[in-house]
Amino acid sequence: MNRLAAAARGDIPADLVIHNASVANIFTQEYESADIAIYSGRIAGIGQGYDGLVNFDAGGRAVIPGMIDGHIHIEDTMMTPQAFAYIAALHGTSTVMADPHEISNALGMSGLEYMFRASQGLPVDIFYGAPSCVPASDFETPYEELDMTAMKSMFDRKMTQHLGEMMNFPAVISGDSEAWGKILAAGNVPLTGHAPGVTGKALNAYMSSGIDSDHECTTLDEAREKLSRGMWLMIREGATFLDLKTLLPLVKDNPLNASRCMAVSDDITARYLLERGHMDEKMRIMIRDGLNPFVALRMVTLSPAEYFRLHDRGIIAPGKIADFVILNDETMDEAFKIHSVWKNGRQVARDDDVFSANEYEHIAPAIHVKVKKVPTAEKIRVKADGNTINAIGVTEGTVITKTLTITPKIVDGFVTADGENDVAKIVVLERHRDTGRFGVGFVKGLGIKKGAVGSSVAHDAHNFVVAGADDESIITALRKLAEMGGGLTVTDGQEVKASFALPIGGLMSYLPPEEVAAKLAETENAAVDLGVKIHHPFMVLSFLCLSVIPELRITDQGYVDITKGGKQKLFV
Amino acid sequence: MNRLAAAARGDIPADLVIHNASVANIFTQEYESADIAIYSGRIAGIGQGYDGLVNFDAGGRAVIPGMIDGHIHIEDTMMTPQAFAYIAALHGTSTVMADPHEISNALGMSGLEYMFRASQGLPVDIFYGAPSCVPASDFETPYEELDMTAMKSMFDRKMTQHLGEMMNFPAVISGDSEAWGKILAAGNVPLTGHAPGVTGKALNAYMSSGIDSDHECTTLDEAREKLSRGMWLMIREGATFLDLKTLLPLVKDNPLNASRCMAVSDDITARYLLERGHMDEKMRIMIRDGLNPFVALRMVTLSPAEYFRLHDRGIIAPGKIADFVILNDETMDEAFKIHSVWKNGRQVARDDDVFSANEYEHIAPAIHVKVKKVPTAEKIRVKADGNTINAIGVTEGTVITKTLTITPKIVDGFVTADGENDVAKIVVLERHRDTGRFGVGFVKGLGIKKGAVGSSVAHDAHNFVVAGADDESIITALRKLAEMGGGLTVTDGQEVKASFALPIGGLMSYLPPEEVAAKLAETENAAVDLGVKIHHPFMVLSFLCLSVIPELRITDQGYVDITKGGKQKLFV
After folding, report:
1. Under an 8 A CB cutoff, do B27 and A257 touch?
2. A175, A205 Cβ separation under 8 angstroms
3. What's the average model confidence in pLDDT over B458-467?
4. Do B5 and A210 touch (CB under 8 A)?
5. Residue B46: which of A25, A175, A229 has the nearest Cβ?
6. Residues 236-255 of A with CB under 8 A from B
7. Burial class (CB in 10 A: 0-12, 13-18, 19+), A392
8. Phi–psi pair at B177, nearest 5 degrees
9. Most B-contacting residue of A26, A27, A211, A312 (CB-CB within 10 A), to test interface
10. CA B190/CA A92 separation, integer angstroms
11. Residue B211 at interface with chain A, using a CB cutoff of 8 Å
């Protein structure tokens, strides 16, 4: 006779009973005063009069299902999956759907294997999508290309149950066989999309592939069109993209749409997680914005569970896994403070404390970043083959760059950086095969007056990128990046002013969240000392290499402008 | 390059374009004036300015997704899957989720195979659940028992993608290993339930097995509790169970609940389908009852698609299969008249016409009903071992019976039927193994004054059941049933007054819908001539054998009362 059923009937003691809970019910939109009985990691029953081997008095506090983040890139927090999970758990997160395309660019399949391995046994379940766009374009040089055969392997090996964001929307729309092959290799699984500004017939073509969600809507009109076409909407609210308030009217006007919408993070920083929170912060934002808290709750629990076909979670219901969160208050309000977090029926977090043995266990990827071929200062000089050049124009607050035509400073027949006029030299050095190949260009708008800033976080191929006011500082930065096996650095001449090692694929640190946030702030402050005025300078720097966003970009292959079809020349 | 994408972009002509459509959109709750472009059986795009190899002007009429019936027993229509599909298609149905437990009781696995085979290539997609309760109880004798191993076979053979209604709710609640084994053998699929009146901790125990839907709610309180516990609600509206109006307040009060509710048929007759319709009739009832038509539409399209994880249908959206219905009017209103029905991008029905080559193709099951051991009149005599007996009490309008204690008519030392006092003898003859085993009892309330009525439709084991006013009429009926290989019959003495052969498992006819309805009506009218007053006499008769419903029932093993734990005696 089955013992879960016996615990549900109340005929045997449950493993755990949460007494005196106010269970938030998204269906009745009421708080049900009840006990929650848990047996063998699953909810046995909700009701009155259960008795457990362990009994916990919730004191009338509200209890909600463990929350689910439908889209996040863990690597961009610069934390390991473990460190991320511990801070996310503190904020009521029980499940995240992660797209590992950063580590997959940096370390290929072994990067995905590392993430998968480092994500077992954590207080948060992390499910990975198959990274569908490695490389982001032919103009980038990742560790290895993950083609449609690689997609098939990931699904065959059960490493993934959904397709990661298909960013190459032009290829899908054009019917490109490689892009469609990746989608079809994924099979009958959730196919997540990324289609900024795609509407009308292009949207039809994109969706005809089976892609059925998107997290790139920034206007109500675009979001309404995608929703009406049958797309699930992931509404993004992270460190830099703040779309919730803009798009919530879709749900406010018709709460039934909450069944097709979710709130997601996409990109988020360690500092944001520490200072503001994770899914709890999204709940606060939605509630403050006037959304019915029960409707908001659906968007971070059942709706993502349904979209990702995780039929074992998303509600507090008999037979589901016992992932739930006890709030500090009796109802869900703007404070939305968390009392304790429970995973598979075990308390995993409370106040500032996460209960786990392997919090900072050192799980390392199979591959380490080893770069020997760092060019000399002489090699990166640019002979003046003209007196007008193209330069990357950076503007605060947008990831879009401009193509600027400028008259550069020329010294001894060489085009050089010009700190006084905010023109920095930018070098991207291939780091995956140690070919020594590099691209050189110029960038205006970073505010570098002296020295150099460098990073191995450089979307999407994550080669080394350094921008600086003089060649010596640039070479010092490249050498420091090589020495650290990846990371962030700020240099001036031969001196390293600050640095933050990211030994895991050049993207992530083994440090705990507080130290990650502190090291990033310290390195950013050193950049400010060089004159850098732009916010999040390392993030801005990293996006200068992403070849699939307009206009001018730089990779190890040189200038690229996707809007002009590919590689661009330095001299006009 | 992919051609579906090209058709979506409008760069190549679509196979078909429905021009000038008013596409009913459940997300915006508006009608969108647009073209619908179809390529290779799928929706390529919705929008303006598409051109097709074939162009069809919808004339501004409303277009809705093909409708989905989430729960039906096709056998109970007495039609083949083909005949059922043709009449259902006329009424805008594109997909049905059928529970084949009747044919599985009558013919075992080969019955399921027959249904599966007879359901290919029809204008309606029919998906079968794995029949989870064959037999309904140990007190019934089906063709063969389908145990947990049989469940596994059905899933391994891809004959089914969901578990059919788990009617043996007491076994699930008690944690019975056989019942749980069947559920676990099904795996991670929708597990459909049947739990009338089950609430509180018993509901917790039932749901702890993973069963996540129910179609048996008849009161608002019960439905609200099940919904709040996380069950998907199938709201039943068939020939005899009319639950829509009672339960719709759940959706009216909170339209978000439409994402967890669907309208289903369960049991329905050929006549109902012909005279009233199918899913279109449910839409009429919901709209007449004041439900927002777009919310109602979700309950017969996207919600059942989501519950059954049919991710390729339920909405008119790019990439989905092109199942849609053009209505006669520009909006969804109480008339809800259908103009034409399209399946996989082909018109399959219009007005009274279904376009299909194999409309009444004769697909036969591997096994035919062959009964040779029909008892003689002498054998079914009942020696009077007392002067008080238990009799089955039938009441109009409920499937629940009573246990009556009556003083029977005794002639020559034998208890006999008594037409004047509405006491009929009832005989159930085992027909699957031709053992000759039969059970005898008495039933009050059918109104049989003379002759006998007999049927091979006898839930759930579907043995032969005959009730009559004299033994000769009963034997004539049993012989006629044996001769026909199953069916319905009405006899008087040695004369057969009417009969309707059901050669497919003794449950279904090869005739088209109109003739099925006419033959059933003709046979029922002959029963009325015998004095029968109760409505749907053959349906009432068939349920007298269903051992899992209170109170007194009869099978080939004799009287059974599940509320008293099993077999019961004739004499008090």
Report:
1. yes
2. yes
3. 97
4. no
5. A229
6. 254-255
7. buried
8. -65, -35
9. A27
10. 28
11. yes
Assess contact for A53 and A13: CB atoms under 8 A.
yes
| CB atoms A188 and B311 under 8 Å | yes
Which residues make beta-bridge pairs with B405? B390
C-beta atoms surrounding B543 within 10 Å = 21
The beta-carbon neighbor of B228 closest among A27, A203, A229 is A27
Would you put residue B487 in left (φ > 0), alpha (ψ -120 to 50) or beta?
left
Closest Cβ opposite residue A9 in set B173, B257, B260: B173
Angle among Cα A282, A287, A293 to the nearest 5 degrees reads: 100
Q: Which of A5, A7, A32 sits opposite B209 (nearest CB)?
A: A5
Share of chain B above pLDDT 70, in %: 99
CB neighbourhood size of B129 (10 A): 25
The interface residues of chain A toward chain B in range 3-62, judged by CB-CB distance below 8 A, are 3-10, 25-29, 32, 37, 39, 42-47
- The ipTM is 0.90
Query: CB-based contact (8 Å) between A210 and chain B?
Result: yes
Q: Locate tokens 């269906």: which residue?
A: A27
Task: Check residue B37 and give left, alpha or beta (phi > 0: left; psi -120 to 50: alpha).
Answer: beta
Q: What is the DSSP string of B262-303?
A: EEE-BS--HHHHHHT-SHHHHHHHHHHTT--HHHHHHHTTHH
For A160, phi then psi, to 5°, come to -150, 150
The answer to whether A204 touches B46, Cβ cutoff 8 Å, is yes
Is the distance from CB of B245 to CB of B252 less than 8 angstroms? no
Amino acid at site B200: G
pLDDT in tens, A499-513: 999 999 999 999 999
B29 contact residues in A (CB cutoff 8 A)? 254
Residue B317 carries which DSSP code?
Answer: -
Give the span between the Cα atoms of B116 and B113, in whole angstroms: 5
Q: Do B210 and A319 touch (CB under 8 A)?
A: yes
B345: helix, strand or coil: coil
List of chain A residues whose C-beta atoms are within 8 Å of the C-beta of residue B249: none
Please, are residues A61 and A328 in contact by the beta-carbon 8 Å criterion? yes
Considering only alpha carbons, which residue of chain B is nearest residue A295? B256
pLDDT digits (tens, 9 = 90+) for B384-426: 999 999 999 999 888 889 999 999 999 999 999 999 999 999 9
- Write out pLDDT tens, residues A290-327: 999 999 999 999 999 999 999 999 999 999 999 999 99
d(CA B426, CA B416): 10
- Which of B27, B39, B148, B323 is best to mutate for the A interface (most A CBs within 10 A)? B27
And the tokens for B241?
Answer: 């169970």
- Span B245-299, pLDDT tens digits: 999 999 999 999 999 999 999 999 999 999 999 999 999 999 999 999 999 999 9
Q: Do B9 and A204 touch (CB under 8 A)?
A: yes
The span from the CA of B566 to the CA of B561, in Å, is 5
Q: Which of B2, B47, B229 sits opposite A318 (nearest CB)?
A: B229
The three-class DSSP label of residue B113 is helix
